[in-house]
Amino acid sequence: MTLFALRRLVLAIPLLIGITFISFMVIQLAPGGPFDYLRGEESAQDSKLVERLNKEYGLDQPIYIQYWRWLTRIARLDFGRSFQPDAKPVLTKIGERLPITLFINLIQMIIIVALAIPIGVASATRQYSLFDKITTVFVFIGFATPDFWLALLLMILFGVQLDWLPISGLRSLNYEYMSFWRQQADFVSHLILPVTVVAFGGLAGLSRYMRQSMLEVVRQDYVQTARAKGLPEPVVIGKHALRNALLPVVTILGLSLPGLIGGSVIIESIFAIPGMGQLMVQSVFSRDYPVIMGNLVIVATLTLLANLFADLAYGLVDPRIRFSGRRGRRR
Amino acid sequence: MPTAPRARRGELGQFWRTFRRNQLACAGAVVVGALVVIAILAPALAPWDPNKPDMKRILEAPSSKHWLGTDQIGRDVLSRLLYGSRISLAVGFVSVGIATLIGVLLGAGAGYHGGVVDGGIMRLVDLMLVFPRFFLLLAVLAFLKPSIWTIMAVIGMTGWMGVTRLVRAEFLALREREFVIWSESIGAGALRVIFKHILPNALAPVLVASTLAVGDVILIEAGLSFLGLGIRPPTPSWGAMILDARSTLFTAPWTGAFPGLAIVITVVAVNLVGESLRDALDPRRL
Q1: Average pLDDT of the residues in B35-56
Q2: Would you tell me how many other CB atoms lie within 10 Å of the CB of residue A119?
Q3: Do A266 and B145 touch (CB under 8 A)?
């Protein structure tokens, strides 16, 4: 197991360097550099300003020197400062917002897993039943519904029409004057709509995957054997089949993480939640490119770590993986 | 000399029968077909000019004149919806086409050559997969001049990893087969073996994956346009229509409800076709 873990860790190092390389190259796509938009139609003053800024940020150097400088700085966790007037260090900005996004993603993940596994098992064991058909319809609609549209509809229904739930931010204006328990209730009520919307699509995906995985396992010989020796059906399903069907789900959860974090972009923008996604959209609109690069590096690194973690967890629960050194079924 | 096993008439008939037996698949195919016709004939079908504002007819409810009502500057919602199908379908098919092309080339190279080439390409796939696609798209679009071509290219270039893995896996399995070894032994060049003998036999799963990817891409384009980073106004795109309707959705629900429904119907139809293709091409999976 230690050897397996070490090999995984070593394999992650070139990926880490690759992440910085891609994040850097993305910015280089900007024709004329990140300050080019300041150049007015004819004004020489603007041109001078662009040149001065380029020099100030070392953008007049050759690309490989720029990359090397940037790389050595982020190796010391210095992501530079935001171009915004507040000129905060990028890492501070991300640090303020990352916990919120991670927290929402964690809650969403727990809800998805808690609902998708029973749904998937139930529709696999009763294949083609009414329940299976209804969940299949739900899955197809879940895959096809734009999250921003669903968010707007729910906001209008529950936020405006019924006036049950708050539709923006994470706290009410009078939050500070509330009692402790009122504060918690207020926070939860702010989370209900965004979490529902993000969980909707993920639930469709994972319950479909769970159903598929279960259907494949149920056909295996060892499940037939368990039945043949007269075990009651709940034991066959719950013990022999489910455990094996859950294995690939571990990997899928790790692999689905970038999608979940990516989904936070739209949801955080709509519900005005101050997380990573909203920061990304804001910095894209203001062309705050140190923040954009920092965002990309941090988000990709976190995904890498989550995948690594899923890999190790998989190796821990499925000894076959450790010895062959490869993951099993991967889509 | 054994030749590459091709789908013979009988197999094709079997495929067609399985596909047709599935009524949902037929419904999906009919809807997709209808959407393609609508997109092509949009100028002839649209009752009004989709971009012409009419300040005297702002936010009118659906009526016999404007079947789906008018939006916040008096444009006909139905006409904008019809034109919007062009954007969704064009971006969907072209982006997926780009992604599939890249994926097939890289996957074929990796699977056929193996060794260092394979290692390098697969590490690149792993690398691209740790970036949340939407973050990467936003970062790139922040600095590019927005146009439908940029959107297509950028979405295509961030979505080829799945196809690469699929094609590589097929190639690894097929390249040890007799018909491949035979054709190599009589001196067929690498390109000929790849494109003439292996690739045609590896295309079925690619077709399924690409069809399902079209739905994803339509949603991504809508999301980008909704954020204001995709198709720019006044060009009618379903995502941008929902963005415009944000403030009027409560008082005039038709401005935002119909574009959303259009997206849902389109993506469901495309996914139905994709899933049924999967069932028809690979009866092992249910």
Answers
A1: 85
A2: 21
A3: no
Task: Name the residue facing B249 among A19, A26, A152 (closest C-beta).
Answer: A152
- Mean pLDDT, to the nearest integer, of B137-148? 84
Contact call for residues B271 and B29 (beta carbons, < 8 A): no
Cβ partners under 8 Å of residue A51, min gap 6 = A60
Distances (CA, A) of B109 to A276, A317, B101, B104, B193: 37, 34, 12, 8, 12
Q: Which of residues 109-148 of A touch B (CB under 8 A)?
A: 127, 140-141, 143-148
Q: Which of A125, A157, A149 is nearest to A241 (CA)?
A: A125
Reduce the DSSP state of residue B76 to 3 states and report it.
strand
- Rounded Cα distance between A216 and A249, Å, is 13
Mean pLDDT score of chain B: 85
Q: Please say whether the beta carbons of B278 and B30 come within 8 A.
A: no
What pLDDT is attached to residue B38?
92
Residues 6+ apart with CB under 8 A from B2: B178, B179, B182
Cβ proximity of A16 and A75 under 8 Å: no
Q: Does A156 touch chain B (CB under 8 A)?
A: yes
Task: Give the integer Cα–Cα distance in Å for B189 and B182.
Answer: 12
Rounded Cα distance, B78 and B68, in Å: 5
- CB contact at 8 A, B47 and B79: yes
- Torsion angle in degrees (nearest 10) through CA of A258, A264, A266, A267: 150
Residue A62 near chain B (CB below 8 Å):
no
pLDDT of residue A329: 40
CB contact at 8 A, A111 and A206: no
Q: What is the pTM assigned to this prediction?
A: 0.87
Q: Which residues contact A37 (CB under 8 A, 6 or more apart)?
A: A287
More confident residue, A43 or B131: B131
Of A29, A147, A255, the CB nearest to B143: A29
ipTM: 0.86
